């Protein structure tokens, strides 16, 4: 079916219909300025100018000069008479039909038709894998010549006589070594013969927490040795660091020579070997305590314990510098608590009486001021005094006999804080002089002299009265009366129980200050 187009039907006329011609190109005119700038020059119709001729005339390119004879021989074409590069010299032309064989085809011996690679009809046959073929039995290899020992070791470079001499020398060295070994073994056996039995040993154990070695290792860095020099005389004692600011607690009788006439010097020696000067901050002769300060940044500070929690039998460790031997550690137990002890007037700057912790840890001159620590490493006392045999009893030798005394840290801490704050300490005073007495059943402190206008006189205490208790604490002697009064602060009112002419009496005393 054909659409009606107004054109004659080709089936009716029997001829091809006319084809439509393309529309003519609409080429707008160009601007004269643009044509002048971008148009072809006059006389040029193509895109490029015609190539210049290669003649020899003027304006043509010059051709390269002919090569030299050496260059032509090296790089030129071979003579066509030799057959060219495609066939060996002397080879004849192949059969024009392309199926010839023989001398005309030198690259295919036997003819190209016999080459399966040039025959498209050659069937594809897989080659057998390598190694499948039977190559037959391998030929047996003949044995090589055997080498002698001399050839293996020396490659025929040593004569047999020299080789024999080397063997003799080796035997001699071996025999000598055997004799030496036998002699050494015989000497070692002599140490344990005949039939000696050695004690069994065990591997070293790690020092557990709480052992003496572990506690001493922690406390030693906080203990110092104090060396006091006055003129040409020198003495030594100990101390313990109680504050990060460098405050060291020690005994008054250790530093007293440096604070008296002559103004000596004090040096502190730490466990690491460092030596620094020390200055006295304050001293309390009544309790034989003093505080010095050392210019050390961030020193190791000892832990402070509670002496009120001590019991007889508790393990304690004394650390100090007895006879100048710094870092000495001794161990023992608490032998007694609340033991009133009057210190030697020659060793102390005052008539000091302490309520001491007694221990059997070895304490000697030079331990004074050092710490007495418990099993945890906390300071529970300041080593102060010892009780030793007299020179006549010990043959002129004085030393520790297991009776050492330390100031309880509960008392020492309060006094040290007051010394750091004000430089001095005020103590309570009863205002009497007393002596120890007993009637065989009751012990006490008999008043020998009442200070006029003092606290005891104001309370009605008279000469001859026997004090048996102060604020509930029993008093068994004059020294115990002193420590019982000093447990209280000046101005405090305390009850004092007396025995006057065989009759008990209780008075209230407002303590004074000393």
Task: Give a topology summary.
Elements: H1 10-13, H2 32-38, H3 69-75, H4 149-154, H5 160-192, H6 212-219, E1 223-230, E2 233-241, E3 247-250, H7 252-259, E4 265-269, E5 275-284, E6 289-293, E7 315-320, E8 328-342, E9 353-359, E10 371-374, E11 379-386, E12 404-408, H8 409-422, E13 428-429, E14 432-438, E15 443-450, H9 455-459, E16 466-470, E17 473-474, H10 478-486, E18 493-500, E19 503-510, E20 512-513
Antiparallel strand pairs: 1-2, 1-4, 2-3, 3-6, 4-5, 5-6, 7-8, 7-10, 8-9, 9-12, 10-11, 11-12, 13-20, 14-15, 15-16, 16-17, 16-18, 18-19
Tell me the β content: 15-25%
N-to-C CA distance: 148 Å
Strand order of the largest sheet: 1-2-3-6-5-4
Shape: elongated
Tell me, rounded to a whole number, the average pLDDT.
81
Low-confidence stretches: 1-7, 98-102, 391-397
The CATH topology of the domain at 212-388 and 398-422, please?
A: Thrombin, subunit H
Query: What is the helical fraction, as a range of percent?
Result: 10-25%
Report the radius of gyration as a whole number of Å.
Answer: 62 Å
CATH class of the domain at 212-388 and 398-422: Mainly Beta
Label the CATH architecture of the domain at 212-388 and 398-422: Beta Barrel
Topology pattern, helix = H, strand = E:
HHHHHHEEEHEEEEEEEEEHEEEHEEHEEE
Structural class, by secondary structure, is: alpha+beta
Number of strands: 20
- Main beta sheet: 6 strands, antiparallel, barrel
- Count of DSSP helices? 10
Domain PDZ: 419-502
Family: Belongs to the peptidase S1C family.
Keywords: Hydrolase, Membrane, Protease, Transmembrane, Transmembrane helix
InterPro entries: Chloro_Bact_Ser_Proteases, PDZ, PDZ_sf, Peptidase_S1_PA, Peptidase_S1_PA_chymotrypsin, Peptidase_S1C
